[in-house]
Amino acid sequence: MPMPLSLDHHNQHSVYSESVVDGPATTQGSDTMSQLAPKQKLPALKAAVSPTPVFENIEATPVPIGDLYDILSYRRVANERGELDMIDKYIMPLNPVKDAYGNYFVTIPGPQDTAPVVAFTAHTDSVHYDGHRYSFVEPAKPEPHRPRQSLKVENHILSLAVPDNCLGADDGTGIWVLLNLIKAGVPGLYCFYRDEESGRQGSEWSAKHEPNRYANIAAMLSFDRRGVTDIITHQMGQRCCSEVFAEHIANAIDPGECSPDDGGSFTDSYSFLDLIPECTNVCVGYYAQHTPNEYQDLTWAAYLVNRLITMDWSIVPIGREPGETDNYGHLYSCADIVNSFPDDVGEALEQFYGITSEELLDIIAEINCTTVERVADQIDLDLSTRVEPFGLSLTRDDDYADFPFDDLGDYDHE
Ligand SMILES: [Zn+2]
After folding, report:
1. Using the 8-state DSSP alphabet, how is residue 68 labeled?
2. Is residue 328 part of a domain?
3. Which residue among 254, 281, 315 closes a domain?
4. Cα distances (angstroms) measured from residue 134 to each of 78, 140, 145, 163, 326
5. C-alpha of residue 344 to centroid of ligand 1, in Å
């Protein structure tokens, strides 16, 4: 499974000159997110990305990059003001259809007004925490809901300005990707699901109660995968899309770098395995989701949007039947479980046990009676490119006394 990528590495995916550096931009108040927009004029797209770029630079995506900052400034605790305000501001102007659960749908018809055959999904909630939701650690006392948070941008990386629960690029970036495709007129059924983080409740409801909504859908792409490499073929160990489909999407987005990956935990498209032939999850460039260290690679978000708009959706191969599985067998050992759920085990180690990837390398070296360098060598990890989580100093102080991830106290950085 992918180790955390260094900035150097994922700048290889950058659609922009690698020498470009934004002036760090910060904001104190919740109403000034537009001030976060990069101050410097950015250079044109690299020609290699797309022979016909649909926009010139990171500031020229169909939906402004500033709207991504703004979406992520909402702490989208499910059904609290942060989530509802974001929906009001960004989804309601699209005149969506709302189902009885509270999910929202926007349809962009295909040629000659035909029903779209591709569905795109993102979830409106995040794992923000106000003392009474998603608590891994039982709260001492519920806090009042804080609907907004401050962000910062450095070197095209968006992160929290001060330590808090999480950035919420999971899945605010997915929302922003969908808004872009809608604005660009890409035919599709656009699904904005609720309550994904508490067990895909919105999408499960939709699949169970309104399956006809998906009668024409051959492929569903969720935009809710970390990093910049994975097109998910298995969720929770169950096959969700065919290799040929995943290969096609990977090549259309970033040949050589994106590839099929069978290590997905679940997202909303998992709710449709028995209804829709191809269900996948696409990497949107966030990292360390569900943690205070979460950050978003803005160049990837803009690049991804560009690729999705320019690709020809009429030639996407369909290689799976609804319900078709080649599920993993029963799980017997820890190693089997790690193989099937590498992300979840990684998340558990980082969040619940406060183990850094550096410490994990140490442990693995010790088990194998070898050096960290030799372990790194085996997995092609260039130790010199390792970076600390972006811009966050998780020094505990009274302002964050209720911060739920106690075990992360060891992450102090200079
Ligand atoms: Zn998510």
Report:
1. H
2. no
3. 315
4. 10, 14, 14, 18, 32
5. 13
- Tell me if 266 sits within 8 A of 170, measured CB to CB: no
The Å distance, Cα 136 to ligand 1 centre, comes to 17
The CA distance from 387 to 53, in Å, is: 31
What is the pLDDT at residue 231? 97
Segments in the chain below pLDDT 70: 1-56, 131-142, 327-332, 385-414
Q: How far is the CA of 123 from the centre of ligand 1 (A)?
A: 7
- The C-alpha atoms of residue 399 and residue 292 are separated, in whole angstroms, by 14
Same domain? For 131 and 167 the reply is yes
Which of 230, 346, 221 is CA-nearest to residue 283? 230
CA of 170 to the centre of ligand 1 (A): 5
User: How confident is the model over 91-105, as pLDDT tens digits?
Assistant: 999 999 999 999 999
Q: Does 352 share its domain with 393?
A: yes
C-alpha of residue 43 to centroid of ligand 1, in Å: 31
Record the tokens describing residue 281, joined without a space. 């999850």
pLDDT in the model for residue 256: 78
Distance, in Å, from the CA atom of 65 to the CA atom of 59, rounded to the nearest integer, reads 6
For residue 320, how far is its CA from the centre of ligand 1 (angstroms)? 24
Q: Are 128 and 77 in contact (CB under 8 A)?
A: yes
* Same domain assignment for residues 277 and 403: no
What pLDDT is recorded for position 396? 33
- The CATH number covering residue 119 comes to 3.40.630.10
For ligand 1, the distance from its centroid to the CA atom of residue 222, given in whole angstroms, is: 9
Whether this model's pTM surpasses 0.85 = no
Confidence (pLDDT) at 331? 52
Containing domain of residue 112, as a range? 12-315
pLDDT value, residue 405: 37
How many domains is the chain partitioned into structurally? Answer: 2
Would you give the DSSP letter of residue 87? I
Please report whether residue 75 resides in a domain: yes
The reported pLDDT for the residue numbered 338 is: 84
Residue 385 pLDDT: 66
CA 338 to chain centre: 21
Q: Are residues 267 and 354 in the same domain?
A: no
DSSP string, 185-246: T--EEEEEES--TTTSHHHHHHHHH-GGGGTT-SEEEEEEEESSSEEESEETTEE-S-HHHH
